[in-house]
Amino acid sequence: MPTIRYERARLLARSHHTDPIARKVMSNGVATFDLTIDPRNLSKSELISVKVAMGLAGLVAVALGIIVLVWPAATLAIVAGLFGLYFLFGGVARVARGVFMTGATGGIRVLNILLGVLLLVAGIIAIRNPLNSLAVLGMVIGISWLVEGVAALVETAPDASKWFGTLFGAISVVAGISILLSPIDSLAVLVLVGGVFLVISGVSQVVMGFTFGRGARA
């Protein structure tokens, strides 16, 4: 009977012991993938891998942000290369999380893989920058940060890292929108905005790595 099947699905969605890959959230009778990363559904090795990935991504962001800010007379090619490296590293980390984080839901794994591919493409475009255009680089950075920020807000874990994940997502969204809506006609402006964001977001990701999995609600 349809009613019985719906009730069984609703009860399974409420249970914390349901297979995390198959678990879905029922809303108004429609099944949707759960896109949050719940550390309770991850094995110890997966949990450590996510923490390390977050921490490394944060350290890379901080390092590149500082380099961007202090590099004397940085050219467009240098700045594009540094941002490209950031996106490439982030893309590889996201794809790896999506492929190997088997304890997560199918939705969050797909989200990580798609975002990872987007970041990889953004990194390649930024490094190659065939038109050698400041506008193209600004657009690539803005779109990537906007999408990454939305994804970070969606997947925020129900643990001690929640607030730092929300902070990272919010900053990323604001920075992405700012770059997309503001006319970037000066390399110095892009360097300042981008460098500051990389440092702040990097610190947030490092803290997320340390706190991920702590205080997860039962």
Topology:
Layout: H1 2-14, E1 24-27, E2 30-33, H2 44-70, H3 76-100, H4 106-128, H5 134-154, H6 162-181, H7 187-211
Antiparallel strand pairs: 1-2
Give the number of helices: 7
Could you say which overall geometry the principal axes of the C-alpha atoms support?
elongated
How are strands sequenced across the largest beta sheet?
1-2
Q: Which regions are unreliable across 5 or more consecutive residues at pLDDT < 50?
A: 2-33
Percent helix among the residues?
Answer: over 70%
**Average pLDDT:** 77
Question: Largest beta sheet, briefly?
Answer: 2 strands, antiparallel
Strand tally is: 2
The SS-based structural class is mainly alpha
User: Strand content of the residues, in percent?
Assistant: under 5%
Summarize this, please?
With 218 residues, the chain is mainly α. Helices cover 71% and strands 4% of the residues. It has a two-stranded antiparallel ribbon.
